[in-house]
UniProtKB/TrEMBL annotation:
This is Helix-turn-helix domain-containing protein. The lineage of its organism: Eukaryota, Metazoa, Ecdysozoa, Arthropoda, Hexapoda. It comes from Nesidiocoris tenuis. Residues 72-129 form the Helix-turn-helix domain. It holds the Pfam family HTH_animal.
Length: 238
């Protein structure tokens, strides 16, 4: 079996074929070399998914965190929109739940709760979000295994959503989002921030005077150190 996510392949092979397969991959180009993570003690992690195989051969999955993970996420005390903080918490909880088999979900809820509390999220909010996650259920399948739809399934017409990007302002943005989404049901308001690294970072190198508009026609010139003088020397021109 072969699965791939971007440039990370996942393969299930016989033990005696692993080395040959890795050598085949690495023989393609000397500058394109792969490493191999092997199953150890019935466990193998792939990205943030941990596969666990018991003695009967049954495979379960768990949410995987590297030992060096800092458990940092969007801090609740930051000046970001409240909706972004909710989205961060919901995504963490949902991801830990989606990637985990039933026997690991309760333990992962505790891990996510500890992570959110360490980043300033109130306990009452964490309890409410966890309760909402536990009460949510997956709807019935609308597509059969052969790709066809059951005859009794009615496909509702979905209105496409429109995303509106606005610059975030702490004083008015949360209220403006509520008003716009209340009156415009198919509009989702998302916020963007102007204080990005490329705006705050300074230019460490001086601007090249040759690239200024007034010197656009100058080519192949020499700059005399210590003097702001340009000599119009066209190499090979007579």
């Amino acid at each position: 079996m072969v699965k791939r996510y971007v440039d990370d392949p996942f393969l299930i092979l016989p033990d005696d074929h692993v080395d040959d397969t890795l050598a085949t991959f690495n023989d393609y180009h000397p500058k394109l070399q792969f490493t191999c993570e092997r199953e150890a003690n019935g466990r193998l992690h792939f990205l943030d998914l941990l596969l666990v195989r018991d003695q009967s051969g049954r495979v379960t999955t768990d949410w995987y965190r590297t030992p060096s993970a800092s458990d940092r996420c969007l801090d609740f005390r930051s000046a970001h929109a409240y909706s972004m903080k909710l989205a961060c918490a919901n995504e963490l909880m949902g991801r830990a739940s989606r990637l985990s088999s039933l026997e690991y979900r309760e333990a992962n809820k505790v891990r996510v709760g500890d992570m959110l509390r360490a980043n300033g999220y109130p306990k009452s909010l964490i309890r409410r979000l966890m309760a909402e996650l536990s009460s949510s259920t997956v709807g019935p399948r609308t597509v059969q295994d052969d790709g066809s739809r059951p005859n009794d399934v009615v496909v509702a017409e979905v209105t496409p959503r429109i995303f509106m990007g606005l610059t975030f302002s702490w004083e008015i943005s949360p209220k403006l989002k509520v008003l716009l989404e209340k009156d415009l049901s198919n509009v989702s308001v998302v916020f963007k921030y102007t204080n990005k690294i490329n705006r705050l970072d300074t230019r460490l190198r001086a601007t090249d005077p040759l690239k200024s508009p007034k010197n656009a026609n100058i080519s192949e010139v020499l700059y005399e150190m210590g003097k702001a003088v340009f000599r119009d020397i066209r190499m090979g021109a007579r």
